[in-house]
# Entry
Amino acid sequence: MKTPVIKADHLDLVFETNDGPVHALSDVSLEVVRGDFVSFIGPSGCGKTTFLRCVAALEHPTGGSLTVNGMTPDNARQERAYGYVFQAAGLYPWRTIAGNIRLPLEIMGFARAEQAKRVEKVLELVDLAGFGKKYPWQLSGGMQQRASIARALAFDADILLMDEPFGALDEIVRDHLNEQLLELWARTKKTCLFVTHSIPEAVYLSTRIVVMSPRPGRIADVIESPLPKERPLDIRDTPEFLEVAHRVREGLRAGHAYEE
Amino acid sequence: MRSVLPILTVVMVIVALWYAGAVAMNKRWTLDQAARADQELTVAEIVADTLQQERPKLPAPHQVGAELWKTTGAMVLKGRAFSKRSLIYHGWITLSATLMGFAIGAGLGILLAVGIVHNRAMDMSVMPWAIASQTIPILAIAPMIIVVLNSVGVTGLLPKAVISAYLSFFPVVVGMVKGLRSPDAMQLDLLKTYSASPGQTFRKLRWPSATPYLFTSLKIAMAASLVGAIVGELPTGAVRGLGARLLAGSYYGQTVQIWSALFGAAILAALLVGLIGIAQRLTLKRMGLAR
# Structure
């Protein structure tokens, strides 16, 4: 049995708002082991993004315990445990693609030569070799998001946290990026936590799917994927795939996610 | 080149209106003179006279142009660009106060904005005072600044520069506060995930984000600074500077001189703001922000 990379134990998070307390997370217990690809799926307000932000120490739970690499999330962040990919690429318009990828390296104090080497390497990884000198506006939305993944990979964190990274892209681009992401995951052996709204995306990418439901945000079901590691895009038409997708849908229904 | 035609059209219309205005406003004096001399004037004679009076109510454009040339270009040709009768000399006096005040004002404005963005106490306390400072008419406070500074032995350039700074810090504060706050929550979160220090956040994110705002505010500040310098010259007894020319012109009814000083100030302002515009274009281009 591998030791968990991320371990959440009866996690609670209550936001105090002007309209009274909002239960963003309630009694969330989950273990993620090294090399897992875990998707979080559920309707808006189910706490999937909040959970990711807790792991990243951008939010702090009000109850329960959470460890990342055996440390508190704050310490794990200091140790560069994770790279975070946001919904929007969020590249700085005044920096080139290479300059954007260099940003975390500059902040973390890598030597110049090492910075250049790493930028080259991750540009290669996300298939953007040769685009380093371009400015963000010269790239398509999909390419920008790939650059932002490269930025998260640049400092070699073991964990990749992704918050609906492809949510704003059209389906054709998204399919392509999903395929590339799986390939990247196989090559780098990172632990991935991936928040999404899309059932096919969750099923296609994940080794485990966490189905969440809102008010209060909690885990409704955790599904181990029986799909093989090797996944061509047309795996989505196989009975196994549809079976898993069906279970996800059932889980969402059981969690009353379809109400309203 | 496509923009030249519309601009020329507008200029022509303004000049035409100006001539019409000059004729209408100066007609009275011409007619009075003629009546006194018992003369009958034709329309052509009236028009011709209204455009070449020595002290017209409204000088015609060519009169202002001639006066401008006489006090600038012609002086340069005579090698007396910095004589006391030269508008270049007076312009330089005003310009030096403007630039000094601009430097003080812009520096102060940036510092205040940085403080406001990073310190909650300053955020709550400075802005109301900054706004209040701009509601006081500058004409009322300028003589007091001059007098107070004079009484402690500060004379010459600095008092005028202080008035310029008083006017020019405000647009910089407002613009830079907005600029430094322009990064959204996601961009700030991104830097948090790198455990970036406040200093790094400022250098890598806030300052570059604020740069376009900075240049916009600097343009406004430069224009305000020039106004401040001119106003600062009025209560000093008006011996040197564009403000002095305006005041002397109004003492002696020299409308042509007033208008040429006005145009001198306008040209100076246009040049200064244009310079900032060039700096802006170069900087933003270097930053990859201009497409």
About this structure: The CA atoms of residues 41 and 73 of chain B lie 36 Å apart.
